[in-house]
Design goal:
Number of helices: 3
Order of helices and strands: HHEEEH
Helix content: 55-70%
Largest sheet: 3 strands, antiparallel
Number of domains: 1
Length: 96
C-alpha cells in the first residue's frame, strides 16, 4: 500500500509534467486541493494533510526547471514574432 508521500509525489509529478510555468504549476496544484507554501517569495513546498513536504528535497521536484520551460517558450514566441515580421517586411518589399 503506497504511503501518503508516494501518493502526493505521483500527483505533484503529474501536475509538474503538465505545467509550463511556476504560476501554472501553482494553479494546478490548488485545483487539485494541494496547498502550496513559499519561502522568500519562492515556491518551496506543499501541504498534505498536516505535514509539509519540500518540493526539491522531499519530493525531488525542482520548480526552477519550470523557469527554464517558461523562458524557452518566451524565446520561441519571440523568434516566431521576428519571423512573422520579416515575412511581412518581405511581402511589403515585393508589393513595392
Amino acid at each position: 500500500m503506497p504511503s501518503d508521500k508516494d501518493i502526493l509525489f505521483e500527483k505533484v509529478q503529474d501536475i509538474f509534467q503538465k505545467s509550463n510555468s511556476i504560476q501554472q504549476f501553482e494553479n494546478l496544484l490548488l485545483k487539485a486541493n494541494i496547498q502550496t507554501y513559499h519561502r522568500n517569495d519562492k515556491l518551496t513546498g506543499v501541504y498534505f494533510g498536516k505535514l509539509k513536504y519540500r518540493l526539491k528535497h522531499s519530493l525531488g521536484i525542482d520548480p526552477q526547471l519550470l523557469l527554464l520551460k517558461d523562458k524557452t517558450q518566451e524565446r520561441f514566441a519571440s523568434l516566431q514574432r521576428m519571423k512573422q515580421q520579416q515575412d511581412l517586411d518581405k511581402s511589403n518589399d515585393i508589393e513595392l
